[in-house]
Design a protein that fits this description.
Strand order of the largest sheet: 1-2-3-4
Structural class: alpha+beta
Strand content: 15-25%
Number of strands: 4
Largest sheet: 4 strands, antiparallel
Mean pLDDT: 84
Shape: globular
Helix content: 25-40%
Distance between the termini: 67 Å
Radius of gyration: 16 Å
């Protein structure tokens, strides 16, 4: 019995990530990541912690090429490598904790 060949299907106005079945699109300041046509993650465009979390997930759990991911997202390969390494060592909790700061907190009342 022959196995059916699956081709990547991406939503319109999305950018495919390398040769994988993953893509992302930006609409109204929200970045959405897709696996074929199914949205799998979403974050604000300016949320760098969420971006690094998604990068870590894609590299570690889904085996997306670091080079393809860096090229598609417009970040350096070292950023992708660091995000994947942090995800491997500490899991999702590393991105969900508030950063430890020295000095005063940046509250604006």
């Amino acid at each position: 019995m022959q196995r059916a060949t699956s081709f990547p299907i991406n939503p319109g106005n999305s950018v495919r990530i390398g040769n994988s079945r993953f893509a992302f699109g930006i609409r109204k300041g929200i970045v959405t990541y897709y696996l074929d046509l199914e949205p799998i993650a979403r974050h604000r465009k300016d949320d760098s912690r969420a971006l690094k979390l998604v990068i870590g997930r894609l590299v570690v759990l889904n085996n997306v090429s670091r080079t393809d991911l860096a090229r598609a997202l417009g970040v350096s390969r070292s950023t992708v490598q660091r995000a994947a390494s942090c995800y491997r060592k500490h899991g999702e909790g590393a991105y969900l904790q508030l950063p430890v700061s020295r000095g005063r907190l940046g509250f604006s009342w």
